[in-house]
C-alpha cells in the first residue's frame, strides 16, 4: 500500500463526502453490524462508532473511491477490537483456531452434500437467516460480504486484511458449513435430501 | 476409458477433477471470471453431471441468501443521531 497522502478537505467537502458517499450505506452498515452482534443496541453503537471514526479520518479517504468497502473495513475492525472483547458470550470458534484448523490448501471440494438445489429454493427467509447466523463469525462474515453485500474477492481481501486466496477458500468453507445447516432444515421439513421421493 | 452411461443428456457421471472444476465454478458464480467464465461454464455444465449439480446448488444458495435473508430495519433515529454527534464533535 502506498503511504496515505496528506490532503485536507474543507468543511464543505467533508460534509459533501459524508452525506454523499458515507451516509447512503447506513442500511448495509446496520445490517452488517446486526449480523455480527445480534443485538440492536450494539449494532447501533457499532454503526455510530464507525461513522464517527470515518469522519475523524475522512482525510485519509480518497474521494470517489470505494466508500462502502472503506466503511465496512472500519466497522469490522471496530467489531474485532472493541465489541468482540466486550461480548459476554465468547465466540464459539476463535479466528486463530479457525485458521489453524482449516488452514491448508487442501480444501475439500468433494461434493459430500446431498442437499438439493430444489430444497434450497423452497426454504424460507428465516431458515436461511438462522442457518447463516449459526455460523462462526468469520465464516458468517465472508458470506455476508460476498452474497448479501456483493463485494468482490479483492474488496473482501482489503476489508478483512487477508489474501485473496484465503478469501476464496474461507468462502468455500463457509458455504459448505451453511449447506450442512440447511441440510438439517431440509431434513426436518421432510424435503427430499437424498434419493427417495416421499409424499 | 470411462463408463459411458446413457443418461438422457450425455453428461459424464464422474468429474475427473472436482477440485479444479468446483473452484472454477464457484469463482464464476462469484463474478470473478468475467466474460470468459461464462463460456467455460457453459462448456463444463454441458459435459459433466457433478459440475452441473454443484453449479445449481451453489447458485441456489447464493440466490436465497441474496433475496430471502431477512433485513433488519434501520432505526429511524440512527442517521439523525450520527449527524448530531458529528456536529457536536466539530
From TrEMBL, chain A:
RNA polymerase sigma-70 region domain residues: 25-88
Keywords for this protein: Sigma factor, Transcription, Transcription regulation
Keyword Oxidoreductase attributed: no
InterPro entries to which the protein is assigned, alphabetical: RNA_pol_sigma-70-like, RNA_pol_sigma-70_dom, RNA_pol_sigma70_r2, RNA_pol_sigma70_r4_t2, RNA_pol_sigma_r2, RNA_pol_sigma_r3/r4-like, WH-like_DNA-bd_sf
Short name of one Pfam family: Sigma70_r2
Transmembrane segments: none
Domain RNA polymerase sigma factor 70 region 4 type stretches: 127-176
GO biological process: DNA-templated transcription initiation
Molecular function, one GO term: DNA binding
Family (UniProt): Belongs to the sigma-70 factor family. ECF subfamily.
Record's protein name: RNA polymerase, sigma subunit, ECF family
Species for this entry: Algoriphagus alkaliphilus
Lineage: Bacteria, Pseudomonadati, Bacteroidota, Cytophagia, Cytophagales
UniProtKB/TrEMBL annotation, chain B:
Name of the protein: Mycothiol system anti-sigma-R factor
Amino acid at each position: 500500500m502506498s503511504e496515505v497522502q496528506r490532503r485536507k478537505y474543507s468543511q464543505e467537502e467533508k460534509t459533501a463526502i459524508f452525506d454523499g458517499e458515507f451516509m447512503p450505506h447506513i442500511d448495509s452498515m446496520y445490517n452488517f453490524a446486526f449480523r455480527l452482534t445480534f443485538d440492536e443496541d450494539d449494532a447501533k453503537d457499532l454503526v455510530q462508532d464507525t461513522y464517527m471514526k470515518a469522519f475523524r479520518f475522512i482525510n485519509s479517504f480518497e474521494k470517489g473511491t470505494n466508500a462502502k468497502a472503506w466503511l465496512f473495513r472500519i466497522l469490522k475492525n471496530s467489531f474485532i477490537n472493541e465489541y468482540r472483547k466486550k461480548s459476554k458470550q465468547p465466540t464459539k470458534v476463535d479466528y486463530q483456531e479457525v485458521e489453524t484448523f482449516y488452514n491448508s490448501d487442501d480444501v475439500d471440494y468433494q461434493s459430500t452434500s446431498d442437499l438439493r438445489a430444489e430444497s434450497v429454493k423452497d426454504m424460507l427467509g428465516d431458515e436461511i437467516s438462522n442457518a447463516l447466523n449459526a455460523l462462526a463469525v468469520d465464516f458468517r462474515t465472508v458470506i455476508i460480504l460476498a452474497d448479501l453485500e456483493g463485494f468482490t474477492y479483492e474488496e473482501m481481501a482489503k476489508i478483512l486484511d487477508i489474501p485473496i486466496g484465503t478469501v476464496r477458500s474461507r468462502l468455500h468453507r463457509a458455504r459448505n458449513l451453511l449447506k450442512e445447516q440447511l441440510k438439517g432444515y431440509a431434513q426436518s421439513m421432510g424435503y427430499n435430501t437424498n434419493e427417495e421421493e416421499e409424499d | 476409458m470411462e463408463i459411458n452411461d446413457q443418461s438422457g443428456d450425455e453428461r459424464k457421471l464422474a468429474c475427473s477433477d472436482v477440485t479444479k472444476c468446483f473452484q472454477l465454478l464457484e469463482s464464476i458464480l462469484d463474478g470473478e471470471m468475467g466474460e470468459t467464465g461464462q463460456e467455460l461454464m457453459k462448456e463444463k455444465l454441458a459435459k459433466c453431471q457433478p459440475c452441473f449439480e454443484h453449479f445449481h446448488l451453489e447458485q441456489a444458495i447464493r440466490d436465497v441468501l441474496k433475496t430471502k435473508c431477512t433485513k433488519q430495519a434501520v432505526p429511524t433515529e440512527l442517521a439523525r443521531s450520527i449527524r448530531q454527534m458529528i456536529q457536536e464533535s466539530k
